[in-house]
Design brief:
By secondary structure, the protein is α+β, with helices and mostly antiparallel strands. The protein is built from 12 helices and 21 strands. Helix 8 crosses helix 9.
Length: 462
């Protein structure tokens, strides 16, 4: 009897005593996608961990989860920091304000705010104007010491340094170290107008480029951009008039100078003047902030991270764990905190954590581990915050284009050779299921139809 119980427990946990048949519709979708069974891991189980799984296929195999890894980062942060946690960005001055001139330097201390985007940076600088500062006689100093220097090469992961998803975290992260280019056709003039936000001091963007005829198509390639000189970008192509107005988010080609150029450029555009320069520098000890600019709450930030799979925001939250609990944002310290949290809350079987975002070739987890995380979260008072952050299949976020075969809230993950989803499926009769489906294979992205079939099958009541 004891042996039979141990064997049953082994099968329950996903052990491969014998290959479990997959639903016929899922098998057929995998066959059409030419995805072998041993390239995928699948798990469907009740939100109650005491109920045996409906389906478990290679659930104990460690795989790369891609952005599904954000589930651990965001839920750990909700528990360790609290959903109402906010980041503050204190601003200091070391001189008096006389006749609307700051007679000294201004300091901005970054403390990891993931959402200090263009409009919120404008509000920070607008507050200076409202406090009577039009001119700064000294310098603007940026203190980024809250996070350890990472020295990250934005091209290191996949050779795409201009993709915003490759932006590195920063204690003073402004607008995700990126800018948005807006192209507006002016047909009568035969030109497209180009606007860049935020304005970056010292960067001379070409304000227009020729229009072309024909279909919109791959319009970014048609621009033939040249970003080899970050201060003098060039267009060597044209913009198709058929595209209408379009926007393009681009990571700045010189990320180390982005914050300084963004602050200097926006301050100047707002009518402020600066006698000195914007440069790096720490806030002297003992200074009291003139004011503090406060972020939206963590629960709102988590929605942005999971709905749109924002990598750099996830890494900001990941480093904030060690900043708040250890005194400085440090990757290894955050990994240690995440491992400790997992052991205490979920169990001793640990995933391999890397940078908190899933933009990694080293991250590893199993479907069984992800299911335990989702079951634990479902029983938590913070469950509504997590579920509200997950894309609704066929409705919004990264799952908006999915075929809505079932009502589901799912975190997706996608890298070269990786595709998967993990989350909750709402059964037709009211039951809630945890579903995990991940492929690690050269043809991983062909898993999507199999995922749709699995969701439809899971939604059927049993």
């Amino acid at each position: 009897m004891r042996l039979l119980l141990l064997l049953a427990a082994f099968v329950y946990c996903g052990g491969a005593v014998a290959a479990q048949p997959l639903p016929a519709e899922v098998e057929a979708a995998l066959a059409r996608a030419r995805l072998p069974r041993d390239a995928v891991t699948l798990l469907v189980t009740d939100v109650d961990p005491a109920v045996p799984p409906r389906l478990s296929h290679r659930a104990q195999e460690a795989v790369n989860p891609a952005s599904i890894a954000k589930l651990a980062t965001t839920f750990a942060a909700l528990e360790l920091l609290g959903p109402a946690y906010t980041w503050s960005t204190p601003v200091y001055v070391d001189g008096p304000i006389i006749d609307r001139t700051l007679q000294g330097n201004l300091y901005v201390k970054g403390q990891g705010d993931p959402k200090l985007v263009l409009e919120r940076l404008w509000l920070l600088l607008r507050r200076l104007r409202a406090m009577g500062i039009d001119r700064i006689a000294g310098d603007i100093l940026l203190d980024r010491s809250a996070f350890e220097p990472l020295g990250t090469d934005p091209a290191a992961f996949d050779g795409e340094p201009l993709r915003p998803y490759n932006a590195a975290p920063d204690a003073l992260l402004l607008n995700f170290r990126s800018l948005v280019l807006t192209f507006t056709p002016q047909v009568a003039a035969g030109q497209a107008r180009v606007a860049a936000d935020p304005p970056l001091a010292g960067v001379e963007w070409p304000l227009q480029l020729p229009l072309s005829t024909g279909e919109c198509g791959d319009w970014r390639t048609a621009l033939r951009p040249d970003f080899s000189d970050p201060l003098r970008p060039r267009w060597n192509g044209s913009y198709p008039a058929a595209c209408g107005e379009r926007t393009w988010a681009v990571a700045f080609a010189d990320p180390a100078s982005h914050a300084a150029r963004a602050i200097a450029g926006l301050w100047q555009e707002m009518g402020g003047t600066l006698a000195g320069q914007v440069r790096e520098g720490r806030v002297p000890a003992g200074m009291v902030p003139l004011f503090e600019h406060v972020s939206p709450p963590l629960a709102e930030v988590v929605r942005d991270i999971n709905k749109f799979s924002n990598n750099v925001m996830a890494q900001q939250v990941f480093l904030t764990l060690s900043l708040q609990l250890r005194g400085q944002g440090n990757r290894e310290a955050s990994r240690e905190l995440l491992r400790g949290w997992w052991r205490e809350r979920i169990g001793p079987d640990l995933p391999t954590f890397d940078n908190g975002s899933g933009l990694s070739r080293d991250e590893r987890t199993t479907a069984a581990q992800l299911a335990r995380l989702l079951q634990y979260a479902w029983a938590s008072p913070l469950m509504p915050d997590l579920v509200a952050s997950l894309p609704a299949a066929g409705v919004d976020g990264t799952m908006r284009r999915a075929r809505p075969t079932a009502a589901a809230h799912l975190k997706s993950g996608s890298l070269r050779d990786v595709y998967g989803v993990a989350g909750y499926v709402h059964g037709a009769g009211g039951r809630r299921w945890v579903v995990v489906a991940i492929a690690n294979h050269a043809n991983a992205h062909a898993l999507r139809p199999a995922v749709e079939a699995l969701l439809a099958w899971a939604a059927q009541e049993r």
